[in-house]
Specification:
Blueprint lengths: L6 E7 L5 H11 L4 E5 L3 H11 L5 E2 L8 E5 L2 H9 L4 E5 L19 E5 L11 H5 L3 E4 L15 E4 L13 H25 L4 E5 L4 H10 L5 E3 L3 H10 L2 E4 L3 H9 L4 E3 L5 H10 L16 H8 L3 H15 L3 H16 L11 H4 L3 H16 L5
Parallel strand pairs: 1-2, 1-4, 2-3, 4-5, 5-6, 6-7, 8-9, 8-11, 9-10, 11-12
Helix pairs in contact: 1-14, 5-6, 5-11, 5-12, 10-11
Amino acid sequence: MSDQSTFSLLVAIRYFGWGPVGKVRLILEKLPQARVVLYGDARAISLTTTLLGSRHKFSEHPPRRSDVALVIHDRPAAKSIADLGVPVVYVDSLPYMRVTDADIPALDRVAYYCAQKYPVERLPLASPLLQKWPGIKWVDPIVPSSQSRRGGQGVVVNVGGLHSYDTGDIGNDLVDNAVEAYLNLVLFPLAGILQAAGRKVSAVCGNLSPDSCKRLRALLPGCDAIGPQTPYAFERLLSDADLLITSPGSTTILHAMAISLPTLLLPPQNLSQILNARLYSNPGADIMQWPASELDRTKVEQLRSRGLSAALPYIYQSIANAAASQEVANEIATVIRTAINNAPADGVLNDCLPTLGVRGASQVAQLITQTISASHKPPY
């Protein structure tokens, strides 16, 4: 296949947070010759189309006719696509989350398993399978290629995908309760604290409902952008920001690191964010943890050893329970206020990105084109 040949790329992502969509966007920018076919969960397809549809056209070719697949975090989709005879390039941006073999696709069914680099000395790989598998491809963080920042527009607040969690066997009611609790315990108090302090807030980004957006506009009348943002708009907002205050999603943290944007970390929403805050913050930094009385991190570690599905219900239930106590709500508001007032000028992130690299999108794109060449399937 020549570099200019058109080919059909099947794309599947797991429906949790908005990080996978951001990664797809960055990889597709390196593959302008790809005809993209979306596959899998209808919610993930709708989200991808909504957030990326202004820049990418998505084809409706049958999956069997695809030349190669890009799968991000979706084990069942990887298996289904491999069963169709389509070679799979699998991207795992959270390899440190994998504890049991059930967390990982059958490695002999994928052409490449791309694990995103991270500070492994701070959180060694837990999965015995990944530790011993020689075929793992370590790729740089998948971040925007532009490393410049203008600044001047004040604070950007980000809470990410919220309702976009992959709930699996966890009841939607529990997740929805945790989301509502998170907004009431963290986001709305944060908005009030910033407004009272006279801080300029240029954007509050996240998968927020119309009612939440209306409430935020009342709290922050001078804020220009409130609610869901496309990856392109979000990149512009971060480029213009002087400070980012975000829930600890790895995609956003790595993006902020790439442009040297001072960043503060809000209390985490789920297990990956608990680990992300540990991985990417400066030792001893104030990262606005939940009170230990509400979320026992020792218990989280114990549950994590049994896999993701064991830890998530405890985390979500703890967040939901915290919202029932005004005393706890006041404690969390004090944690947030103190962290903002005492924030170091350069934020709380550990400046480790240069050691990890920034070429992940290009590296994955190259493996996709190599996979097509190796399969000897002529593009159509």
